[in-house]
Design goal:
The chain is α+β, with helices and mostly antiparallel strands. It contains nine helices and 22 strands. It has two domains: about 5-230, 3-Layer(aba) Sandwich (Rossmann fold), CATH 3.40.50.300; about 235-355, Nucleic acid-binding proteins (OB fold (Dihydrolipoamide Acetyltransferase, E2P)), CATH 2.40.50. Helix 3 (about 90-100) packs across helix 4 (about 105-120) and helix 3 (about 90-100) runs parallel beside helix 5 (about 135-150).
Length: about 375
């Protein structure tokens, strides 16, 4: 597939702006995930790419050609939705082959493509069955096969695994990622599940209220969120937020000075600091008088990982357990220190502030 561009794409419904001037460039073979809460505009964006919704403004270009006025069939993008919508009276083989038969391809080509697709999806032994004889995961594989068999220019999926149980979702995520890599097919995948996005994506486009908040590889989205919305949305548990400012003596967090801050920022309009659970260290006692303190209210076990839920200034913080926490119990008062190489600073507009990694603060 040629490069696909969304240029200032906008969708309005009466006085509601569903998608607000989105611009994204997809490279050939890329796996892009549109991620965001319900109602953020991600499915509407996908439907505009597919041609199922008409853009109010902006262009969709494929290989430099504007395709806004092309019907879905002309765009040759294959879609998979939450509902598998298989033909109940047809066999798996006939379900998969239905778009090829509609296109009036010859019988040999249809058989070759169906067998190839079934082999890719590991459903060869199911070809003679009907949908009612299949599990939910098998039905979803058939729906994916019906889309892939067309050998489309791009693959568009709208929360296809959302109704499956967690174990099956994880299995199908792995299979889809491997399949997409083998076929090198440009893919746009819509989900509200951040863990699913992190597993699948080459890049994630985070949306909120119709606007694009950040588009980056998963590791950048996680480590360097562009704003406080992304920082709060990504991660489970999410980031912990603190009031913060830059002082001559260091970083001032909730009124306390941390003199070990030794990094430089491009401007001093710091409003807050965000730290992930793994970037906070709990101590049984203060190592300096200025350290923040909190009370452990709950120790939460998640498999082999433990999280400490702490009460701080009438709100909750979540801290990932480290090896030296074995002597800390619920009800204990603990001191908080931070991995300042990993925390993020935001300005009064909620935007990420650039920090110079290697610069040392001048005292």
């Amino acid at each position: 597939m040629a490069k696909t561009e969304l240029l200032n794409l906008r969708k309005e419904y009466d006085d509601v702006i569903a998608v607000d001037d989105i611009s994204i460039t997809l490279e050939d073979g890329e796996f892009l995930v549109l991620l965001g809460p319900s109602g953020c505009g991600k499915s509407t964006t996908l439907r505009m790419i597919a041609g199922l919704e008409t853009a109010t403004a902006g262009d969709i270009r494929v290989g430099g050609e504007v395709v806004n006025d092309q019907a879905p069939a002309e765009r040759d993008f294959a879609l998979v939705f939450q509902q598998v919508a298989l033909y109940p009276h047809m066999s798996v083989q006939n379900n998969i082959s239905s778009p090829l038969r509609a296109a009036k391809l010859d019988a040999d080509t249809i058989e070759r493509r169906v067998l190839k697709t079934a082999k890719l999806l590991n459903i060869e032994e199911l070809l003679d069955r009907r949908p009612s004889e299949l599990s939910g995961g098998q039905q979803q594989r058939v729906a994916i096969g019906r889309a892939l068999v067309r050998e489309p220019r791009a693959f568009l999926l709208d929360e296809p695994f959302s109704k499956l149980d967690q174990k099956l979702r994880i299995q199908l995520q792995k299979e889809l990622k491997q399949l997409q890599g083998e076929m090198e097919i440009t893919t746009v995948f819509v989900t509200h599940d951040q863990e699913e996005a992190m597993v699948l994506a080459d890049r994630i486009a985070v949306m909120d209220e119709g606007s694009l908040q950040q588009i980056d590889p998963p590791e950048n989205i996680y480590q360097k969120p562009a704003n406080k919305f992304v920082a709060d949305f990504i991660g489970n548990p999410t980031m912990n937020f603190f009031d913060a400012s830059i002082e001559d003596r260091g970083l001032k967090i909730e009124g306390e000075i941390y003199s070990e801050w030794n990094r430089s920022v491009r401007h001093a309009s710091i409003d807050s600091m965000a730290a992930r659970p793994e970037d906070i260290v709990l101590s049984e006692s203060r190592t300096t008088e200025s350290m923040l303190t909190a009370t452990v209210s709950l120790i939460e076990m998640r498999g082999s990982t433990a999280y400490f839920v702490c009460q701080f200034d009438s709100r909750e913080l979540t801290v990932l357990k480290k090896n030296d926490h074995d002597d800390i119990s619920e009800g204990d008062t603990v001191a908080l220190s931070f991995d300042f190489e990993a925390v993020n600073l935001f300005d009064s507009n909620g935007k990420l502030v650039n920090v110079t990694e290697s610069a040392v603060r001048q005292s």
